[in-house]
Amino acid sequence: MEYFKKILRFAKPYRKYGFLNIFFNILYALFSALSFAALIPMLDVLFKPEKKILVEPVYEGMGQLKDYLQDYINYRVNAYSGDDEMKGLVLVIGLVLILFLLKNFFNYLAMYFITFLRNGVLKDIRNKMYAKIVDLPISYYSEKRKGDVIARITSDVLEIQHSFLSILELIVREPLTILFTIVIMFGISTKLTLFVFIFIPIAGMIISRIGKSLKKKSDRVQREQGEFLSIVEETLGGLRVIKAFNSESRFYKTFTTSTNRFFHFSNKLLNRQNLASPTGEFLGIMVIGVLLWFGGKMVLIDKTLDASSFIAYMGLAYNILTPAKAISKASFGVKKGNSAAERVLEILETENPIVEKKDAVVKPNFEQGIDIKNVSFKYEDEYVLKKFNLKVPKGQTVALVGQSGSGKSTIANLMTRFYDVNEGEIKIDGIDIRDFSKKSLRNLMGLVTQDSILFNDTVKNNIGLGKEDATEEEIIEAAKIANAHDFISELPQGYNTNIGDSGNKLSGGQKQRLSIARAVLKNPPIMILDEATSALDTESERLVQDALEKMMQNRTSIVIAHRLSTIQNANTIVVLQKGEIVEQGSHTQLMEKDGVYKKLVTMQSF
């Protein structure tokens, strides 16, 4: 129940619907019991015409309430019908029908109001999960598979609605239906009701044994669902490679292996779950059978119970079966929902290691420079940067070069606070970036990466991502600086053209120029370029390089470069090797040194 309590906090904004549901469920439970009790006078009219009550009965206290109500209805029926017994029968039938109508009407109202609570909680959990997914650091997703996260925000949240939140309907309605029914059953026959209570705990024990392994089985099903969703996500992301290497059959085999496991786990889970209903029903009918024997003996032999009361009693006894089955089914739902809630809460309760201070600095402008002091950092066990030091004065361009894995892109990740340093500090205008609010820090920076990350939206919305209130003129101006305006104008709907999933309707060079236009429009004082031209052909590189040079004018830039020809005009070039600086200086100075940098330039010249 621990997870249930945690999920229940999402119901607080909708508690008025919960209270209305409880109110109408109480009325439903009351009228559910009364509708069967009302059968007694109808049966008396039919089967006991000799027992007509012609004088209004006198109320003699709570102890005689059942007899008083029964006699009063009998008196009213006889007073209304006179000598015509059919009139009395019609009146009693009408009373029973009205009671059943009210019972079902209140049931509808109870379900009507709980719908707002259930769907509201579903909406809020999904919103909270999405906010958490966006807030969590990039490092979190290097450990989690995206498909598994998608499974948690879709099917697991839906499972919570089906299992946990359906209990809210049952918490009041079914127990009260049983309670009111038992009160009336006691009113009809205490001896018979006590006899029933011997069998109910036995039935409950048998049903609970069936449900014990449900949580474990449900957990396996939900994990496997995350597994095959991950395979689908990876397949769609790498479809070109899969087709190019004729690997369709290999991925199909991986997917079918996962769905086969899902098939077997689901069968075991559902078969165990499906066992509950017929078992519960059989045990219930068994109780009814024993009641018929014991109650029949009281009517026929002992003469301690009249026939009409016994028939109504049997209806009431059967009236307990439906809510009892619903409660046992709900207990299975709790076990199944437990594993879904556990997976959802695992994300919601994950602590973000990139913590923002309560009194975080909001800095609107950049005035002096960037200072990276004695920074050491590791993703896992091995340090990628070791005692790294670098100063970037305002207005200057600093290029970072070196072999793959030397730590160049790590500096971009640390500058933007996608990760926090293990040792040392990074300062902007003398303030540690950990003291800034994350929004304020990232507002000072523009990022253009090697992979052009675009969204399935229009050109206009992709460029305007960093500035929500951008005018059309500003977007066009940014596109012109990025050398993107000409090709955008040739698109079918110009700036309103949808560029497809990840911008796949565009070439690599066009996608990169849109990324640059997006950074230009944001107009940040610090620009970080992470191998922005390395994946382009020569012509696209020339256009992109020209756009980058226009963009870097009057800005502080950190350029991570693979192609050394693109950074020869940088004020300072820093050469990295295994996370340490081995050379530093201008292009001319480093060429004169005849060291690592010159060797890299010579290798790329061929």
* Class by alpha and beta content: alpha/beta
Q: What would CATH call the architecture of the largest domain?
A: Up-down Bundle
User: Strand order of the main beta sheet, please?
Assistant: 6-7-8-3-9-10
**What's the name of the CATH homologous superfamily of the largest domain?**
ABC transporter type 1, transmembrane domain
Report the C-alpha radius of gyration, rounded. 37 Å
Strand content: 5-15%
Could you characterize what this model shows?
The chain is an alpha/beta fold. It folds into two domains: 347 residues, ABC transporter transmembrane region fold (Up-down Bundle), CATH 1.20.1560.10; 237 residues, P-loop containing nucleotide triphosphate hydrolases (Rossmann fold), CATH 3.40.50. The chain is 63% helix and 10% strand. It has 21 helices and ten strands. It has a six-stranded mixed β-sheet, sandwiched between helices. A four-stranded antiparallel β-sheet has the order 2-1-4-5, covered by helices on one side. Strand 9 and strand 10 form a beta hairpin. Helix 2 packs antiparallel against helix 5, helix 4 packs across helix 5 and helix 11 packs antiparallel against helix 12. The mean pLDDT is 79.
